[in-house]
Design a protein that fits this description.
5 helices; alpha/beta; Methyltransf_11; single chain; Thiol_S-MT; Rossmann fold
Amino acid sequence: MSGRVLEVGAGVGTNFAYYPKSVGQVVAVEPEPRLAAKARAAAIGAPVPVVVTGATAEGFSDGEQFDAVVCSLVLCSVNDPVGVLRRLRSLLRPGGQLRYLEHIASAGARGRLQRFVDATFWPRVAGNCHTHRDTERAIVEAGFEVDSARREWTLPAWAPLPVSELALGRARRP
């Protein structure tokens, strides 16, 4: 990854320490004020320049261009994932990358658990997180081409939490 990067939903800035020196600047979006304050503190020690803003991706001008967009555990919490992804695609230069680590819909019993918790209490207690979304399909629907993707488990498969399965991938704007 290189050039100018937009990180959406930066949280407390956990990713900042991992950007390679080939990145010229990270513009980190975190609309939650308490998290943004922690992200600003994390930006001070980052190996690359990081600017933290309280804006949202919708707040950027149409002429603004990035070489890459990073989304970590954010697409589960937006109301319109495909719409947000289309907006992010419009902010990428042609050939630019989307790198993502996101909750995804599981199959079988865990998938049924995800649908149940999404319809009842989980979004209210977990920052609007919807665990049973087909995030990978949304990425393709938004006009990205997936270059590589894999699924990871954050907890053992037997653990009864709905947020155990993640998609880790790289897509690009054609």
